[in-house]
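REQUEST FORM: STRUCTURE PREDICTION
Request ID: SP-0412
Submitted by: Lab K.M.
Chain count: 1
Length (residues): 232
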Amino acid sequence: MRDLAHWKGCPAPEPVRMEGRYVLLEPYDRAGHLSALWNDAFGGMAINPLLKYFSQDDFSGIEDFDTWLSTVQRKSGWVTEVFRDKATGKVVGMANYMRADAANGVVEVGGVAHGSAMARSPLSTEVHYLMAKHVFEDLGYRRYEWKCHSENQASRTTAARMGFTFEGIFRQHMVSKGGNRDTAWFSIIDREWPLIRSAFERWLSPENFDHGGRQKRRLEEIRAELAQEEPR
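STATUS: Completed
RESULT:
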């Protein structure tokens, strides 16, 4: 654990552009991204089943989506990052830095929505590598959180694959879509990041993919191997 005797907090996350090998992350711009998210990334009204576990009500159209996204940015301080596939140039998803507690060095990644074009590709892995790297290495945060509906098994699986540690269930945490939501909490803390970063980088290396673009080694396998190599 780092020495906190002279801790002064962290800067709040701000919109930022990040570039990886496979994906670009761009600060949300309504004029440039709203239609692309709604139509290209999320397939119009197909967004509602995709965002089944989000707490907001189903959208009746792009206007509702626009209002919701604008509101969470303005009132809740979400910092929306939009994902663009470098190979195709298309917008493929989004995520947000949210609930930043800059004084204590804690921030959450949430409102995560991967469009179908991200499935079975390195894009989603690289997105979360870049977002976590920015939090820990550029902004100096101590804790990076991932929370989801306890019934959202896909989100829980993704969090664990990315290296987040499951911390438990907050029972009756929220009222969501007219029902109860128990929330699963996950986190990465700063002392864990170097190993997690190394695993991400080895997995994302071109040498980890065959000619068909299939992974040779799983991210969890690489991370476990690196953990075994750490001095005890």
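NOTES: The chain has a mean pLDDT of 96.
Reviewed by: T.R.
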